[in-house]
Amino acid sequence: MQFYESDPLLNAEGVPVARFAIFSETPRNPKPQYNVQLAVNQYVGNHEYYDFVEEWLDNPWIRMIFWGLENIDYVPYQGGIQRRDFELIEGDGMFTGANLIILKADEGIENPKPMIESALIDAVNGASYNAFILSSLNYPWIKIAITGINNLNFANYHGQVANVQ
Hints:
Layout: E1 2-5, E2 9-10, E3 16-24, H1 32-44, E4 50-54, E5 62-67, E6 75-78, E7 81-89, E8 95-105, H2 113-124, E9 129-134, E10 142-147, E11 155-156
Antiparallel strand pairs: 1-3, 1-11, 2-3, 3-5, 4-5, 4-9, 6-7, 7-8, 8-10, 9-10
């Protein structure tokens, strides 16, 4: 099981407001989904979190766990869509080459999926990306994309627990 834990994501004033983790299991494992769920449960403990799955649902052995989405300072982007980008930095302050893009539709939009899809294509600007949606699959008002996910420093997961503050 591979695991990536982000450094805190900062708002415009440099204050930590959110963080996330990604779990990835090899499909060669006989129970990849089960192993990912066990790891997520162990990692998050009793903390509340947002649970995201890979958008196309063809990769059930990758999950994103997120805290603080409600604390992020989004900026207006395209008619009813708000956006926030983060360059993902490692602990040493070096840019990883990966970017996190969060797109959020206004709650009043009845069918936000086409608008978010259009905004996502524009936001990634031709780069390869992995897209994540809430695991409940019934809340299309938010989508997260990561460009350069293979540049992230994944490590083996050995029972680490979330450092959520």
